[in-house]
Design goal:
The chain has about 500 residues and is of the alpha/beta class. The strands form three sheets. Strands 1-10-7-4-2-3 form a six-stranded parallel sheet, sandwiched between helices. Strands 8-5-6-9 form a four-stranded mixed sheet, sandwiched between helices. Strands 11-12 form a two-stranded antiparallel sheet. Among the domains are: about 260 residues, Rossmann fold (3-Layer(aba) Sandwich), CATH 3.40.50; about 60 residues, no CATH class. Bound molecules: iron/sulfur cluster.
């Protein structure tokens, strides 16, 4: 059995996506075209997210007025963000009263430094980690491994991601891009056991391995779905029980959470929990809801000796400062917008080049990491509105994507050719005769191209070639809409 997880080759499907994402110029176009042509990927993603999408719709029907509850949840998050300094102060006071220690980290580097120091000071070497998107955001597991710790992802999906040196491709279901056969092959190689693709057998194999890690661990890492300012506790939801082990077994417990995860009161938590699991997996509530904070109290049978809460900024206050985009920080990472998105279903999560894929990723990745590098992501949307309709905290994703497109133009981030084309279009549309003439020339060219392929256009000029890369376009109609309109008006006069 392989014990070291460092220096293993990446999953072949992920390698190119990660290289692209790491490069100074992220080429969404290339990676998304590759992903859209991968039938295995499309099937795996489509089947899994559709199940969650349908489950969400059914479970929302359980609620007397789900829309009003979504409005309330959005208002709670917005109110907290608008008064974040006040609620963070309350949270810090109450975590401290509970006996916990609070640390603030400006960015990923600082967070990693803080966490490594906590581990070092307590002489910890064996870390069990439950699923947290923010630790993926800063690549924490890798930093702990490099520092010599034995780090194990204990969520089954994350464990599979870890041993295949892959990256999660969904906020809730990290291995949504993998099928059963590829997981069976991976387990057979990793554990050096015969190939067996029975899901129960695979789960038991992982369970046996992880049990031992739980028993021997001295350092627990979690994220946090919510931080309740009123009581100074972290609330985390999960289905596998691995997180409960992570918060109860090790001597030292660290929760790494983004500052935007604060909510004011326990009653607000009840609102959020009603929506989170329903929106994420179509469950009324997750199997486990872990609410914890502070070290083990006298008389308690389990819990850590030390509890540390690391609150990370990593670009969040920059977004907070901007009233236009502040709303994006409401996100509770339920993944419902991914499941609803026709683009995500076709290309999966890796093509977005960040740990935050789908519509919310197309929005927050450029905000966190720079619009220049990720300028293509706001275009990766049909603006159909399905994400807004699915969002439990009513983030108006399409509106913000349009605003980002506006920023791209205003900041001259789009290329000179694209700008010239749109300028010419805007200018020509003022002169109907010229505009119609251009339309006629275009139609002649398109008919000529269609003639070569039995009435289908398969090769548009470079500027529009994306359209025909994964689909054919029919020949233009003999009579244009304008011509038919004119003809109809003439006849009805
Ligand atoms: S934007 Fe809304 S729907 Fe998407 S992950 Fe965040 S909370 Fe869920």
């Amino acid at each position: 059995m392989s014990d070291t997880l460092v220096n293993q080759p990446l999953d072949e499907n992920t390698e190119q996506f990660l290289e692209e994402a790491a490069s100074s110029k992220f080429d969404f176009h290339t990676v998304s075209v590759k992903a859209a042509g991968d039938e295995r990927l499309k099937n795996a993603v489509g089947t899994a997210v559709l199940r969650q999408y349908v489950g969400r719709q059914q479970r929302l029907l359980d609620l007397p007025d789900s829309d009003a509850l979504r409005k309330l949840a959005g208002d709670i998050k917005q109110h907290t963000l608008d008064h974040l300094d006040y609620y963070l102060d309350r949270l810090v006071d109450n975590v401290t009263k509970n006996g916990g220690q609070v640390h603030f980290a400006r960015d990923g580097a600082e967070a990693k430094q803080i966490i490594l120091k906590i581990a070092n000071d307590a002489h910890c070497t064996r870390c069990i980690k439950s699923k947290t998107m923010v630790s993926e955001e800063i690549n924490l597991a890798h930093a702990l491994e490099v520092a010599g710790m034995d780090v194990v992802e204990t969520d089954l999906g994350e464990f599979i991601v870890q041993i295949s040196h892959d990256k999660p491709s969904h906020l809730v279901a990290p291995i949504v891009h993998k099928d059963r056969a590829s997981i069976a092959k991976l387990f057979s190689e990793y554990f050096n056991t015969p190939y067996n693709d029975d899901p129960y057998a695979l789960t038991m194999q992982a369970r046996k391995y992880l049990r031992d890690k739980f028993r021997k661990s001295d350092f627990g890492m979690t994220g946090g779905n919510f931080l309740v300012a009123e009581t100074g506790v972290v609330a985390c939801v999960e289905n596998e029980g691995n997180q409960r082990q992570s918060v109860t077994t090790p001597r030292i417990l660290v929760s790494l959470v983004g500052i935007e995860k604060v909510i004011p009161r326990m009653t607000d938590l009840a609102v959020m929990l009603k929506l989170l699991a329903r929106s994420a997996t179509g469950q009324p509530i997750t199997i486990y809801t872990n609410i914890f904070g502070g070290p083990r109290a006298p008389g308690e049978k389990d819990g850590p000796e030390e509890f540390h809460l690391v609150l990370i900024d990593n670009g969040r206050t920059e977004i907070l400062k901007d009233p236009e985009y502040r709303e994006t920080l409401r996100c509770i990472r339920c993944g419902a917008c991914l499941n609803a998105c026709p683009i995500y279903r076709k290309i999966g999560g890796h093509a977005y080049g960040s740990v935050y894929p789908g519509p919310i990723g197309a929005l927050i990745t450029p905000l966190f990491q720079g619009l220049e590098k990720f300028k293509d992501l706001p275009q990766a949307s049909s603006l159909c509105g399905a994400c807004y309709e699915a969002c439990p905290v009513k983030i108006n994703i399409p509106k913000h994507l349009i605003n980002l497109r506006r920023d791209i133009v205003n900041q001259h981030i789009n290329g000179p050719i694209e700008r010239a084309v749109y300028r010419f279009w805007a200018w020509s549309i003022q002169f109907p005769v010229l505009y119609q003439l251009i339309g006629k020339v275009q139609a002649i060219d398109l008919r000529r191209r269609a003639k070569r392929n039995n009435g289908w256009i398969r090769d548009l000029p470079k500027i529009a070639s994306g359209w025909t890369q994964v689909r054919d376009m029919p020949e233009p109609a003999k009579h244009s809409f304008h011509a038919r309109w004119r003809e109809r008006s003439r006849l009805t006069k």
